[in-house]
């Protein structure tokens, strides 16, 4: 009964929880502070967001490669993200700093999915897929199928194909859109 293992295990767990809370608090303070910000990201609307290169390069392999390169962005300390809105940039930064996907919704998940794919934020990409999968309906399935193909979102693609296959017996503008717009996706559908 008293082998002495339960107390150290409990202490270790408590220590880990405290360390996690301290780390989260540290990162939260870092996100809220202007101290040490050494790079500027500019959204498509021109909003400038000073960031910490270290945080972004840990979160994103794309940013990591960018910071190690001799690209103009590294020389100027500024990168214009022509295809990223301010709202999407905010989601990316919250994810990079906190690992948080707070505020992810069916309304913004498409834009965030495209950005997550571009910057190789795989967990964020999967979370976006999950949100979009729950929202598949006849009116949006063809757009989601095209999107899934564009960003290699396999779970979303599989679910969209299954949805279309399950509803293939009914005349639908969804199927017409697919047949008329994308030969490769068309063959994916009809190979089932």
Automatic annotation (TrEMBL):
It comes from the Eukaryota. InterPro entries: BTB/POZ_dom, SKP1/BTB/POZ_sf. Pfam families: BTB (PF00651). Residues 37-102 form the BTB domain. SMART domains: BTB. Coiled coil: none annotated. This is BTB domain-containing protein.
């Amino acid at each position: 009964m008293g082998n002495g293992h339960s107390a150290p295990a409990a202490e270790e767990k408590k220590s880990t929880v405290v360390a996690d809370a301290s780390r989260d608090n540290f990162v939260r303070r870092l996100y809220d502070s202007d101290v040490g910000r050494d790079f500027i990201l500019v959204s498509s609307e021109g909003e400038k967001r000073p960031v910490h290169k270290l945080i972004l390069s840990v979160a994103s392999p794309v940013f990591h490669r960018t910071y190690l390169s001799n690209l103009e962005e590294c020389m100027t300390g500024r990168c214009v993200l022509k295809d990223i809105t301010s709202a999407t940039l905010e989601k990316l930064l919250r994810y990079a700093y906190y690992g948080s996907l707070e505020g992810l919704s069916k309304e913004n998940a498409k834009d965030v999915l495209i950005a997550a794919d571009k910057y190789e934020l795989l967990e964020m990409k999967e979370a976006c897929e999950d949100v979009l999968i729950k929202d598949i309906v006849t009116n949006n399935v063809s757009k989601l199928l095209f999107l899934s193909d564009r960003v290699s979102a396999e779970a979303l693609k599989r679910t969209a194909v299954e949805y279309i296959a399950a509803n293939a017996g009914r005349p639908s503008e969804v199927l017409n859109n697919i047949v008329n717009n994308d030969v490769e996706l068309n063959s994916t559908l009809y190979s089932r």
